[in-house]
Design brief:
single chain; Rhopdopsin 7-helix transmembrane proteins; receptor; 12-(S)-hydroxy-5,8,10,14-eicosatetraenoic acid receptor; mainly alpha
Length: 320
Amino acid sequence: MEIEDISNDSDIKCQENIDHNRALYIFFSSVVVVEFILGLLLNITVIHLFVFKIKFWKSKTIDIFLFNLVLADILLLIGLPVKAYNFQQCSENKFVCKVQLFLQFLNRGASIAFLTVISIYRYFSVVHPGRRKVIRILKHSPQISIFIWVLLAVLTIPAMMQSFIRCNTKESDDEDLSPVVILREIVFFTQIYIPFLVLVYCSIRIVQRLRSQKSIGDKTKLRKAMFLVATVVLVFAICFLPYAITRAVQLRMGLVMKEEKVAVVKLYDAFICLSYLNCLLDPILYCLSSGKFKKLYISIYLPFLMEKEQQEELDDTADD
């Protein structure tokens, strides 16, 4: 009975908080719905290409990693309608909540992991092409992909066993630092900060190699690799760093004034919405990673752009 009363009090407080910030959370919910619709459309068209046109299982190493990346994004998008609903409501189905959180933790981690592996593969291919052993290991893309999924699932499952985890972050109750909470936070910060540092290092090394390269052909290849890795770093900086930094601030705010804490919770929810933007930006990265993929995508889904480009080429030829 006591547990039930505590739960009811928590829901009453949460509902009061929602009523006080109704417009803000309706806006957050609308942003998530837009990201869900656009992200699902983009990623379904991409996965259609990988399966029916490119046939990724017969293609290069990079295509298998890219397929797993788009798969992670689609699985992450599946949980967004629940997230949009929870931004407006306090009542939660615990099973649905935990499934949504599992999808969020697992697939965001997988998306980050595959982005990082793709960048590392590009880095070794253009900066250290002589290290054939490393490149050979990275070419075992099916085995690496399975390992990433299994590892992330193992690290995610224990965090879902904790009963206090809520789909709503608007109710800013403090959490005891139990071993499960510590594990969850270690996994959360590790899967964001370490890949970001790896990507920054890859970008710096590619730039250094580009400056020392004299061959025009090699410079073109290096510029393409540098552009790709730098774009991934930018995606991280926009989508994940504000989210992770605000989470770190949240964990440090156990003794601050309640008004300040509520403000940080709102900011954290805003950056959660921003983090889902990753699912929209990833399809752009697929095009950047392969000129062939870009042409194939445009020819099938945006043929009017292809016709316009071809017409411009004909006009240029006629002028000459």
